[in-house]
Amino acid sequence: MFKLFRQWRRQRIIERSTVSSGSWDTAFRQLPLLDRLSEEEQDRLRRLAILFLHEKSFVGTYDLEVSEEMRLLIALQACLPILHLGIDWYSGWTTIIVYPAGFAPEREVVDEFGLVHTVKSKLIGEAWQRGPVILSWEDTESAGTLDGHNVVIHEFIHKLDMLNGAADGFPPQHKRSHAEAWSELFTAAYADFQDNPKPGLSRYGATAPAEFLAVLSEVFFENPGLLNDAYPKVYEALSLFFKQNPI
């Protein structure tokens, strides 16, 4: 009964959306990343994005006004990884913070001698466990152009990775057999990537297993052939996880 009510409620949200078809068409045209989707998949993505916009709040910083156009571009890219997973994969948090450009938060770190230091790290995106996703609009605006780099997808992959704890490159799997294969494949691929750079794959992926997953997922959606050539078994594992085959 609850499942039927939830489906009815979500359908009502979709039907009552105030975003015009023209605005959606404009957003899709601005994202070559979505050209490969069929009409049915584009409609599914739009419906997911409507639910996403209903459930999430957008906060601009430094007087940045997050316009409808900006929200649509972010929502469509954020929902691409969950196209065949569903909006519930983004449950448990509500806020997307948008900076005009890159940002440099201050953090305290403890060195090997136990001394505490305050450091600043320049970032273009960040995802917090049970907290917000933070994006640089300057970098988000140029995402979705099929260059193999997509800050929106990158940060939202971290959110999927965090569903079963801290981001570690091992998001919840659909089957136990998938989990076993995932662990083996990604451990081997990550070790290889640290020693053997691959053309087109950002070296940022070598800094941690969570970043390796996020970087490879960017390429999976933006340049899938490149990832398939570099790590065909990893591509297959991602295809099973996302339930998509972009090639």
Description:
The structure is a single chain. The protein has 247 residues and is α/β, with parallel strands linked by helices. It folds into two domains: 144 residues, Glucose-regulated metallo-peptidase M90, N-terminal domain (Cyclin A, domain 1, Orthogonal Bundle); 80 residues, Collagenase (Catalytic Domain) (3-Layer(aba) Sandwich), CATH 3.40.390.10. Helices cover 48% and strands 11% of the residues. It is built from ten helices and six strands; from the N terminus they run αααβαβββββαααααα. The protein has a four-stranded mixed β-sheet. Strands 3-4 form a two-stranded antiparallel sheet. Helix 2 crosses helix 4, helix 6 crosses helix 8 and helix 7 packs across helix 10. The longest helix has 20 residues. It starts with a helix and ends in a 5-residue tail after the last helix. The relative contact order is 0.10.
Sum this structure up briefly.
Helix content is 48%, strand content 11%. It has 247 residues and is an alpha/beta fold.
